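Section: Multi-chain targets

For targets with more than one molecule, the full set of components is provided together so that the structure can be written out for the assembly as a whole rather than chain by chain. Components appear in the order listed by the source. The example entry contains two components.
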Amino acid sequence: MNRTQYEYHPQVGYKFIPGLKSRVQHEGGGYFVKTNNAGFRSDQDFHSHKKIAKRILVFGDSFTAGDGVSNKYRYTDLLQESLDGTELYNFGLPGSGTDQQLLLYREYARQFEHDLLVISVMVENIRRVNAHYRYYLDAEGDVKVWQKPYFRISNGSLQLCNTPVYPTPINLSDLEESEKEKVDTGGRFEPVRKLAKKLGLKDLLQKIVRFQPVPEYDSAKNSEWLLMKKILQTWIEESEVPVLLVPIPMFHHVEGTASAKSYQARFSELSESCMIHDPLPDLLKYDLPTRRSFRFGKDVHPTVKGHEALAASILPAIRTLL
Amino acid sequence: MSDKYILGISAFYHDAAAVILRNGEIVAAAQEERFTRKKHDPRFPVNAINYCLEEAYIEPDEIDAVAFYDNPMLTWDRIVRSCALSGEGSLPTFTSAFHSVLGIKAWVKDHVVKAIGNSGKLGKIVFSGHHMSHSASCYYPSPYEDAAILTLDGVGEWSTTTIAHGNGSDINVLKEINYPHSLGLLYSAFTYYCGFKINSGEYKLMGLAPYGRPVHVDKIYENLIDVKADGSYRMNQDYFGFLEGSHSINQKFCDLFEGDARKPESRITQREMDLAASIQVVTEEVMMKIARTAKQLTGSKHLCMAGGVALNCVANGKLLREKIFDSIWIQPAAGDAGGALGAAYVACHQLMKEPRVALSGSRDRQKGSYLGPGYSDTEINAFLQRNSYPAHHFADPSKRAEKLASLLAEGKIAGFLSGRMEFGPRSLGARSIIGDARNKEMQSNMNLKIKFRESFRPFAPAVLAGDESLYFELDHDSPYMLLVAPVKEEILLRTDGAEQMPEDMISIINRERSLIPAVTHVDNSARIQTVHKDTNPGFYDVIEAFKKQTGSSVLVNTSFNVRGEPIVCSPADAYKCFMRTNMDVLVLEGYILIKEEQPNYTEHENWQEEFQLD
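Its structure, encoded as tokens over all components, is:
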């Protein structure tokens, strides 16, 4: 049994239920999802005014929220431990795209005094940014979708769509054909991925075919990338404090079975407006068995070791900005 | 000094469960079936363990010890020896036991590590004896510092019945009866013979007993069980199939009672009623004798009981009225689920030598048995909103109580999810279906329109603590619904002479016997729950509000489930049960939902085929 973790939010789609103390069963032995009174995964409540010298706000998806590990083992909490006189507010929201994270920032986080904004973009999130719905299988086994907010570029600006978000799941069959293409199913070639996972051949297949999981980054003119770039540019412009952009690599990149060049090139396009810290070179310094231990056996989220490695990589970058 | 945490586990036979203690205090306890929705789920309780860690808010490596409720090697020893004695006929039993005991039970530590990543600070599992676990489960949470302890069940390792003495933090076993002689197995044999499931249908047999005449008592004593004056007994194995195969009875048993076993779900006849009445009498008589011996051996004023037979609340009520002991405390999770609690206590008080928790004014250390998951209004709101289920929110608990009381007074039947879920087989007002006990149609409505089950089974009254003597011949708290007592003469209605038991039971069942007919059984008894403000303020407030509005402080309280389904745990379970049945109202903490206001509810599968009868 796992408790319901999310509540409806008309702008973002959903967020954590405030005051939650839930233990999630997991192949790693289970972990706690504890949320504060604002509904973010944190052992502490968030306050508008700083009580200590420095404060950093961190945004991201499940890799930042900490799926698979309890709060105290996440890279953000490890960074806080290493940074004397600094607190980190983790606004990570599992399953969210960078677009929803920008909305969270506008809705909740902007009001908090802070000195640094960290945007952790799990590179796969480019697909979520371009999705209008997320796939969902209900208790009866029916295929449904959750609507999500999304941006489109109109006259050079971001235009928010799908808000207020529809609060209940929608039957996939009720969507128009053009909208069905906008459902994020979690990656490309879904049937092949599922079969490979079921047969336990996922890692082997990846090694052999060197599948490139995020071709959206291949071209600077790719429309999906242009939307992602626009969202990040807008967010950076809205921020009144320095921004650290951290592209979080997928396991394919960490384990050397897919090239990172494309996404690295794309994120570097933003290097003039903010500091970019790519943790991949640091992660690649570890030997392969160690890198493999950065994720769980089946779940691709970072293990405690994975979070430690991320924290070790990001720490110097943060120090230069504080 | 850091807190000491002990995780107790029971599994692999029936009703798996997990419990966690902090410094000897129960923090959480739950049965696995509530999470998996499979009744009496025996599988390793990964969900219940997860919940216990959630409630304690600790990581697995903070657990000081993990305790298991019995010793698989002793069970294996019993099986090998029993099969060796029985010869070739016992091969199927041996093969099945080989897989069950050596294939699963022997690897408890591996199961723990797989579920939570490690096995705690001790790094190994503490195995408690099965009946020691039962003894510990009833003595340590009881209010007593000195008590006789009686455990009775089918079988655990070798023992089937034990008398022990609890004093301070110690428990000493004084006497035991071993397999295959077992009062629990005898009762189960009759359960099976009457067409109910063993290990879960026993309470049905108990409910059937008042309809029958105990005409087979002599036959049972003469052929099946030889009981001595001190309550020790031996069973005549010629009539039972425990040793040879999976069936509890054999042809000779059927011949003795002149017929085959009743087929499940077929019509219940006078024959089954008489058999039920007869074995009930024998059970009660044996229990009285054993209790007297326990009193002699220990000299204690108080009695603690556990084991499946301790759920026989009719016998418990008689034991209390016999006044062999000044008071009795029965573990509400008396079956194997409670073994998880006992094992944890054994590790706590006997291995780690932790002192018992002070009572501090409480009635006992079981906390009303409200030890399972609870849900906040915020969580429930999220559930309702995500599904667009209309509901009325009452931030003030007294307003909720008033509204619900007025609906109940109108004759509505309500599903009630409030506070932390009960540990044990009884719904005690945290996951209950409730209604007006004065309503003469309530019993048949609840049975047929909501529970979808045989209608002979009585419902229990929940009465405000302090008011019990207004309605019942009871001067003892009964917070765990484990005592049966007569309904007060003053509120009984006159019946026209002696009742003949017709072949059709319905006319008898629906007869109005008292001013609280919905909870008055055919023999004018009731299985009583006294509701206490300190352990369940939400339920107490509802009954109190009902009393203000109607003058009655009794409600019908039955488990929040349909036939064959585990009691609901989560708001989603509760909503599903609400919509599948003809309940009128659903309470989810501070929210009240009205059936007519809900959207259409459809399911792909026929849920009535999902759950099997006990």
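The two ends of chain B are 48 Å apart (CA to CA).
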